[in-house]
Amino acid sequence: MNLGHQRRGAALLSGLLFGAGLALSGMTLPAKVIGFLDITGDWDPSLAFVMMGAILVHFFAVRLARRRPEPVLGGGFQLPKKKDLDTRLVVGAAIFGVGWGLAGICPGPGLVNLLAGDLGAVAFVAAMVVGMGAQHLLVEARAGKPAPSPGGVKATS
C-alpha cells in the first residue's frame, strides 16, 4: 500500500472514530447541546465532561507531536504558531458560537447527522457550505487575489 493510500486510510479511520465519539457522547443531538448552553434553564453539564476529555486528549497529543521530528505518515505537523487574537478570529468564533447556540449543532455533528440520514442536517450542511463559500469569496475579493482553500488545506493527489 502506498503512502497516499495509508494517509487516506488514516484520515478515514480518524473521521470514523471522531464521528463515533460524537454520536456516543450525544454531541449529535441538538437538544442535548442546547441543554448544555441553557445555563438558566434545565442545564445539562454532561457536555462539559466530553469537552474536558477532548481537551485532555489534545493536551497530550500536541506534546507527543512536538517530540516527533515528523508525523508517522510523513509530511509535516501543522500546529498553530500564531498566539495573538485578531479580529477575524474573534468574529469567526462569535459567528460559530451564535450558529452553534441557534442550531444546537456544529460542523462535525452536522456531517455525522447528514450521513446518518437526518433530513434536518441537510439544511444545516447546505447553509454551512454556502457560508464557507461566501467567506472564501469575501477573502478573495478583499485581497484582490485567490484566497486559500477553506481551512488552509491544499489539494493533493
Architecture overview:
Keywords: Membrane, Transmembrane, Transmembrane helix. The protein has 157 residues and is an all-alpha fold. The protein has one domain (3-151). The protein is built from 6 helices and no strands. The protein has helices at 3-25, 30-37, 46-67, 87-103, 107-115, 119-143. Helix 2 crosses helix 4 (87-103) and helix 5 crosses helix 6 (119-143). The longest helix is centred in the C-terminal third of the chain and has 25 residues, at 119-143. It is globular. The two termini are 15 Å apart.
Mean pLDDT: 85
Can you tell me the overall shape? globular
Strand content: under 5%
Residues in helix, %: 55-70%
Give start-end ranges of low-pLDDT stretches: none
Q: Report the total helices.
A: 6
Order of helices and strands: HHHHHH
Number of domains: 1
Annotation, overall tally of beta strands: 0
| Termini Cα gap | 15 Å
Structural class: mainly alpha
| Gyration radius over CA | 18 Å
Largest sheet: none
Quaternary class:
single chain
List the helices and strands and how they pair.
Elements: H1 3-25, H2 30-37, H3 46-67, H4 87-103, H5 107-115, H6 119-143
What are the defining features of this structure?
mainly alpha; 66% helix; single chain; 157 residues; globular
